[in-house]
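Changelog-adjacent note: as of this version, every example in the card shows the full chain rather than a window. The one below runs 538 residues end to end.
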Amino acid sequence: FIAMDKDIADDGQAKSGDTLRARALRAISVTQWVPAAGQNRINGMIANRPDWVISRQRAWGVPIAVFVREKGDGSAEILQDETVNTRIADAFEKEGADAWYADGARERFLGSRANEDWKKVDDICDVWFDSGSTHAFVLEDPVHFPGLAGIKRKVDGGQDTVMYLEGSDQHRGWFHSSLLESCGTRGRAPYDVVLTHGFTLDENGRKMSKSLGNTVEPQKVIKDSGADILRLWVCATDYADDQRIGPEILKNTIETYRKLRNSIRWMLGTLHHYKRSEAVAFADMPELERLMLHQLSEQAEVIRRAYAAFDYKTVIASLAAFMNTELSAFYFDIRKDTLYCDPPSSVARKAALTAIDLICDAILKWLAPVLSFTTDEAWRMYRPDVAPSVHLTLFPETMDGYRDEALAAKWETIRNIRRVVTGALELARAAKTIGSSLEASPIIYVADRALLGTLFDTDLAEICITSNYEVREGEAPAEAFRLDAVPGVAVIVEKAVGRKCARSWKILESVGEDAEYPDVSPRDAQALREWKALGVSV
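Full-length structure tokens:
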């Protein structure tokens, strides 16, 4: 038996209240439990558990390698002889634990004491004590685990953190026995963090079984879709509960991966010829770039906090929403015209490339722990000059300098107005009034004078991806398009006036003003002139 409530001797002196139960409860309180409910679970088990019976009467297992003899008072004495113990340890090291059960083992180990009335114990050790002692060998054995034995935990003044990770059933098993064994011998838990997860079920919530034919083999998922798909599924699930997997669920994971990969791919292509020597300072960037870097700084805070809490589903959900909604469907869509059509000297173009470079760097590093193969492949195309692998880099430093809450509030208003314009364009496209949005020149009616001030220096044609636009103060005609969520704003879609630019596809009255390039707008003519001077064929 291992007593839970008996004082533990320290240098021969008993400490009042220093029991195994007290040590274990104290260790639980300073351990990080993920999810937090795990602390209450194991705390209740330790608080109420009886003494630990570590002997088992079975024919197999690791023997309790001791000799005992009966004392006159009915108790038993355990032989404590260094020479005998050394013989046992040497035999186990060379032959394994079965040496204890070999013929003549008693006489072999006792040696000259074989004529005394010592009895060889043939009980085995409780297998939970067995597994609970693994920390002593993995973390402290320089012979068999030289790489791990050098770990210096924070509790010892070092920087290393030891995590135990297993299913939620192990509060009663491995976590439990490891805690008691280590508290009894080391006075503390063997771990700093304990993370528990649920069990993997099929799509219908049933336990996987070969007889049911509902098993999903990781090897097959990796073979069919790649290891990053499996890693993405794992990190996107709420592992605190039982998680489900199957063909339909994996289809959703594959679609999420495809969108993330396409955004990374687009950024890599856009940055292919980018010169960082031409980077634009944050203060000199247009508002749209500063808005996106503000959002990037918000992501940095969310991602760091989520990783620190082992909350991987938030990492994936937050980055997927940012990349799909804020970048791909908003920022990238707006800036394609500037990136593709502005002249090389354009500050707006250089600012956009600078912002995309900062965004790409952060996203590859943030996604690296999850999409380890995809991000490493992307990194080798992106910044091999910085490090040969993304896994040899650190997360970006603080991005607090990009924060601008006032700008974000202003652009929330602009984006609401954009939503009204986009809705009106969709109806016009459905009615065949226009084809693409570049065929339109929306008239935006704004009843609120304060909103007009917000739009004063904003190019809504650029933001709404139209060829032109007009803002009018006052109430709109009854037939104008409105959104209940955006009061005071209404839109009528009219067709853009002018000729179609052969380069940007915008319909503008200025097309043809440059005699050297009669098929494009003056902006595009200037771009063609600059590219030609650089020797680039466009």
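Structural remarks: The first helix runs from residue 20 to 29.
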